[in-house]
Each structure stands twice: as structure tokens, then as C-alpha cells.
Amino acid sequence: MTDRPPAPVELSDLLGRRLAGGAKVRDLLVDATGAAWPVRAVVTDDEICEAHWHRGELALGAPVATTGLASLRDDILDRQVVDTDDRRVVRIGDVALLPVDGRLEAVALEVGLRPVLRRLGLHVIARRHREDLLELDDVTVTDSCVIAHASHDRVARIETHHLARLIRRLPHRMKHDVLAQLPAERSRDVRAHMARKPHRPHLRRFRVPRA
Question: Domain residues for 13?
């Protein structure tokens, strides 16, 4: 008989949870590099401690330094995602975590309506909506947004004017971050397309006849 794989855990289910001893989880800090982000620390009202996962529950270890760690609540949750493949801008509604060897690892970002409904307590309705996950090795976290990438081959097949139309709608700082992540030649093409004046067909003016 094989062991069942561990069930994923949502960040929203852990924030605000009371731990053994009464401490409340305020945030989780991760090493946000690589294809999975190990959870290194738990932030409570009083301290920041090592994060452990024991028998389906978070447990606190020794106090730990936060240098080089990212906040899932402040840096990731509810941030905008610019998806250069599907040409859309969405918001991160939750973070999927997976128990691995006595700790948690963030493995995907959840977008769409499902996590929003779940965070509102509407779990039954949320289950009716499809799960929409972005894998972490396909995203880049910048100061202004999170950028979801397709492979360079797939991005190359997206017509330049479609990418330009998406990026043109973004705030200035987000435009810069997205363009910086594109291949250099593609970035130049998109910038050139964005610099053109958008085509606006002339509207006919009809003269209203006098009575």
C-alpha cells in the first residue's frame, strides 16, 4: 500500500490561524527563488520564528533572521500578475503550499475567482469554479508586479501588436518591468509598436438638417 501524496495547503487558510501556545499566524516568509519557495519563517504578533510542519499543523522553531526572505502576505498576495502568454492582467488570490519533509513549500500562485470566493468563506461556490494556477518557475517577482511567462518559443508566437496592446494599458512602472523581462529583440519591437499612434478610424460627421 503506497502512501497518499500530501494535500496542498492554502496560504489564506493559515493566515490568522492560532498555533499551539496561542500565537496567531500573521505572515509566512519564503526564500523566493527556484521552482518552489521553501517557507523559512512564521511571523506572529510577538516574534519571527523558524517554520516547521508537523502532523498537519504549523509549528514554531527558534527565532530567525529575515534577511533575504520575502513576505507571502505583503509581497505576493493580492499583487497584480501580468500574463504575457494569455495577454491578461489578473490578481493573485492565494498561494498553494505543499508539505515536504517537515516544512512547507510554496509551489504555485492561484488566480481567478475561485480563491476570492474561498477567502470570503464561500467554499461550496468556490469549488464550482476551475482552479487556475501559475507555477513558480514561470513567474518573475518585480517591485511593481508579478510577471507570468510562457516559454520564449510561445511568447515568440504572440503577435507584437497583442503584447503592445497589453503593456500599453499598464501603469508606467509595470510597463518597464514587463518589457525588461522580454528577450531584447522582442522588447525593442514591442517598444517601437507602442510608440506608434493607435489607429483610430475617422468618424463621419452627419449634419443635422434644419427644420
Answer: 9-72
